[in-house]
Specification:
Number of domains: 1
Protein name: Acyl-CoA--6-aminopenicillanic acid acyl-transferase
Distance between the termini: 22 Å
CATH class: Alpha Beta
Order of helices and strands: EHHHHHHHEEEEEEHHEEEEHHHEEE
Number of strands: 14
Oligomer: single chain
Helix content: 25-40%
Largest sheet: 8 strands, mixed
InterPro entries: C45_proenzyme-like (IPR047794), Peptidase_C45 (IPR047801), Peptidase_C45_hydrolase (IPR005079)
Domain Peptidase C45 hydrolase: 106-336
CATH architecture: 4-Layer Sandwich
Strand order of the largest sheet: 1-4-5-6-7-8-9-10
């Protein structure tokens, strides 16, 4: 189900908090367990860690703190709880290694973005899809986790972004990952979106796949320094959960899971085989690639794997395909190979 919130940032935040209060509380319980499993912190300790990011947000995107405060009020929680949820990557990704396979492709004047989001299965029911209409900023659709200001999505200007987690001990100055994603989703253009990663910077490593309806796209391996940039080859950019742009790997050490390389090789092969230059692209073709089970359990579409330690079992929790020319996002909640729970959202007059 899509939640639609409009108004000032405070009003959007309060509506978000009221509507998803139970899911936000559940998200906190999930991350309390995750922080304990991976970095030995309980929630109260994680809240204290999150406070260090407030000055960075105040410098780069201060107005989003109003929305976080609104979420907290609406959900009957403290601002520190919502701040901690939105800084979960910076707190846990020194040890926690998520998944995700993402791609952009441009064919016949249409720019596409698509990805699977792989994470712990106990977060499946805390996934939310929100259409936000903030006063003075573009309308946007974000698919992510209850209580967080953004994750994966697009806006009415045709700017879209996907996310790949990177496990690294690097942490510095810049915007937290999920705050940076929201700022990108409020960008007026591809150039404005890329300034978030080159000017504001991102305080911990990740990969942002940014594209726009005018046919521009690039991958950005972000971190506190200048990001590594991955330009399209044959109209496409692909990424999983390891760094491979030389300008990033020479600055940042990452610790990917073994399946990151196999998934990247496989998505590249699928693009060559199924969508060569000149082939037509549609949402179903992209979902079919995201539903691929080659080399299971290390496949693009990830299922329960009993051979992994319990705290490391990552599964595909949702898949999205975005047509940026049409400002359209299609979500499959759960694994894309099952595809029973589908939501389509189109912004503006496209």
């Amino acid at each position: 189900m899509l939640s639609v919130f409009s108004g000032s940032r405070a009003e959007i935040g309060e509506a978000h908090g009221r509507t998803h209060a139970a899911l936000i509380t559940s998200s906190i319980e999930v991350y309390d367990r995750l922080f304990h499993d991976f970095v030995g912190l309980r929630w109260a300790e994680a809240r204290r860690v999150a406070e260090r990011f407030v000055p960075m947000i105040e410098r780069g995107f201060p107005e989003i703190l109003d929305e976080m405060a609104g979420i907290a009020r609406g959900a009957g929680l403290d601002l520190e709880d919502i701040l901690t949820l939105n800084c979960r990557s910076e707190i846990s990704l020194t040890q926690a290694s998520g998944g995700c396979t993402a791609l952009s492709i441009n064919r016949d004047g249409t720019q596409w973005l698509a990805q699977n989001w792989d994470w712990r299965s106990d977060q499946l029911h805390n996934v939310v899809a929100m259409e936000l209409r903030p006063t003075g900023a573009p309308s946007l659709v974000s698919v992510g986790e209850a209580g967080m200001v953004a994750k994966i999505g697009l806006n009415e200007n045709g700017v879209g972004v996907c996310l790949n987690a990177i496990r690294s001990r690097t942490l510095g100055e810049g915007l937290p990952i999920h705050v940076a994603l929201r700022k990108i989703l409020e960008a007026e253009s591809f150039d404005a979106a890329t300034r978030v990663v080159t000017h504001d910077r991102v305080c911990s490593p990740a990969h942002f796949l940014i594209a726009s309806g005018d046919g521009r796209s690039a991958g950005f391996e972000v971190h506190p320094g200048l990001p590594g940039v991955l330009e399209p080859r044959g109209g496409a950019v692909t990424h999983t959960n390891h760094l491979y742009a030389e300008t990033a790997t020479c600055q940042v050490e990452d610790f990917p899971r073994p399946d990151s390389g196999t998934r990247l090789t496989r998505i590249d092969a699928l693009l060559r085989e199924r969508l060569p230059l000149g082939a037509a692209v549609d949402a179903e073709a992209l979902f079919a690639m995201l539903a691929d089970h080659d080399n299971a359990p290390l496949s693009i579409c990830r299922h329960f794997n009993p051979d992994q330690p319990a705290e490391e079992r990552m599964e595909t929790l949702f898949a999205v395909v975005m047509n940026l020319r049409q400002r359209r996002l299609v979500l499959r909640h759960g694994k894309p190979c099952e595809g029973e729970d589908t939501l389509t959202v189109t912004l503006g007059d496209a």
